[in-house]
């Protein structure tokens, strides 16, 4: 059955092509497995709550008749602005428009949110772009720029809201800096979600070709009900494709956790158990309440543009297992810096079990991808990361958070990172173990090696115990602290880029921070003091059982492997890397540029190879297979495909096949750099 929707149609339609519905929700109320809902171009100011699930092989498909021309928005136009003083205007709206959820009396809050950042879930938009909330009319009038915001000039556009209880209205004040609000499009967010089932288990939905924007979403930590502007709400088999997702107050797409009423933001609400402990409780509770491969996850997000969201582009805990996230353009996430906490990134996923992140272009985010806990069987492959760092202004202190392209935290692995390009000054934050890094270009440093895994108690041990799982399943196999190491680095190209003084100063400030460090030297050098496998194995010679000599062997750092890597411009290998190629004679340049709407890599590396300044033989390396890589220690699991089959690392960044004698880095051969990356 096909249902048609057109916002320009008269009321009373029956969903036929000749008499379409004028609200998407009318079709969402009745569509069942195998049905298709075709939506005409236009702006749909409604919350779409799909009532029925599809079936495997028979999804319910919601399709924009013309790609990205059907626009679901959580905002309403706010008109009637009157001048208060200078460039400041005021307008008001009846609170009846909000129903039982007023975004201007609801504060952003939750576990791991830094509560001294006061922000409401609502926003005011100037021509589709959210302005900056402040706490008083006086601050609106001053219109001072934010030193933390990435767009400093636009941060002067301020708004403030208060309640008039005598009329039951929300009163807005906004500084439009000389613009006329009667001539611009001024909107306020009114609805909490865009396209999102209110109940759990509404699976096998396809959302194709829509624009979804401006929802008043709440903070989405792993120990709470995680909502998004779009998402499957604890179900299976969704496909979100060819969509544009932007300006969600917190998260654009959620593949997140369901509501556990007795364990929802419990750290914030009761205080007695730390969030790390309540997170372990959440996982175990989900296990007995139906979290399994058969019921949850296996979603696909592909070919989407996701941008300008306050917390994350994509968020999830538990609900995103076995998912594929590919060919997305994710950018400008958390750039306002008006929200802060431990759950921020272009993608922030807990328990990304057997998830694949492939061919995504991620840039200008506070952090690119953050894989937290249980990145088991996770693969990050063929992605391009750059500019995931605050703007740098010579002579001006960097006040915004400084993060990295990829953060893997307190996971036991195996986590596979292959055939990527990392160009931000901090490439990988590795407060973790069980990671294989293969055939990448890395022009940024490794940080937090050997630290960042305790829970911050100043005077007592506070190690974080995190779970590992049965292979390719959700069932918990055990819990363990992070021993560090158990990392493998093969066939990578490390290039040290110049670091500006302001960034160095910001990094040095982290020198004594147990959660981070000040390393900005590119290469495997942070692993200098880690054992080789033979050194580690020697600790276990002879009898190790009850009554044997007590040693630290079961709690010492795990071994680290490296081979086939190249180092340029002062990038440094770890001391025990026996075959590292180090070239300090030639300056290797690397950056990216946009031409005619396409992104290209700019580097002279392959020119240096072709002219013999870098020997061609130095680029040659071993063709790697799953069996060449030591399994992740704790789960005893190989670096393999989600179905358990082995991987041959013979496919490069572009999908081109490598030969039996491949070259290091993400390309099968240097001629490919003439091709656009995206």
Model description:
Helices cover 8% and strands 27% of the residues. The strands form seven sheets. Strands 1-2-4-15-17-20-23-26-29-32-35-40-42 form a 13-stranded parallel β-sheet. Strands 3-5-16-18-21-24-27-30-33-36-41-43-44 form a 13-stranded parallel β-sheet, with no helix packed on it. A seven-stranded parallel β-sheet has the order 19-22-25-28-31-34-37, with no helix packed on it. It is built from eight helices and 46 strands. The longest helix is centred in the middle third of the chain and has 14 residues, at 275-288. The radius of gyration is 26 Å and the shape is globular. Strand 12 and strand 13 (169-175) form a beta hairpin.
Name the descriptors.
678 residues; mainly beta; 13-stranded parallel β-sheet; globular
Proportion of residues in β-strands? 25-35%
Quantity of strands, as a count: 46
Q: What is the gyration radius calculated from CA atoms?
A: 26 Å
What structural class should be given to the helix and strand makeup? mainly beta
Mean pLDDT over all positions: 96
Largest sheet: 13 strands, parallel
Q: What percentage of residues falls in helices of 4 or more residues?
A: under 10%
Draw up the topology in text.
Blueprint: E1 2-5, H1 24-28, E2 36-39, E3 42-44, E4 60-64, E5 70-73, E6 75-77, E7 82-85, E8 88-94, E9 124-126, E10 129-130, E11 132-133, H2 137-142, E12 158-164, E13 169-175, E14 186-189, E15 205-208, E16 210-213, E17 239-241, E18 244-246, E19 251-254, H3 266-270, H4 275-288, E20 300-302, E21 305-307, E22 312-317, E23 324-326, E24 329-331, E25 345-350, E26 356-358, E27 361-363, E28 369-372, E29 378-381, E30 384-386, E31 406-409, E32 415-418, E33 421-422, E34 426-431, E35 433-438, E36 441-442, E37 445-447, E38 466-469, E39 476-480, E40 485-490, E41 493-495, H5 501-508, H6 533-537, E42 560-563, E43 566-568, E44 581-583, E45 590-595, E46 598-603, H7 605-610, H8 616-619
Parallel strand pairs: 1-2, 2-4, 3-5, 4-15, 5-16, 11-12, 15-17, 16-18, 17-20, 18-21, 19-22, 20-23, 21-24, 22-25, 23-26, 24-27, 25-28, 26-29, 27-30, 28-31, 29-32, 30-33, 31-34, 32-35, 33-36, 34-37, 35-40, 36-41, 40-42, 41-43, 43-44
Antiparallel strand pairs: 6-14, 7-8, 8-13, 9-10, 9-14, 12-13, 38-39, 45-46
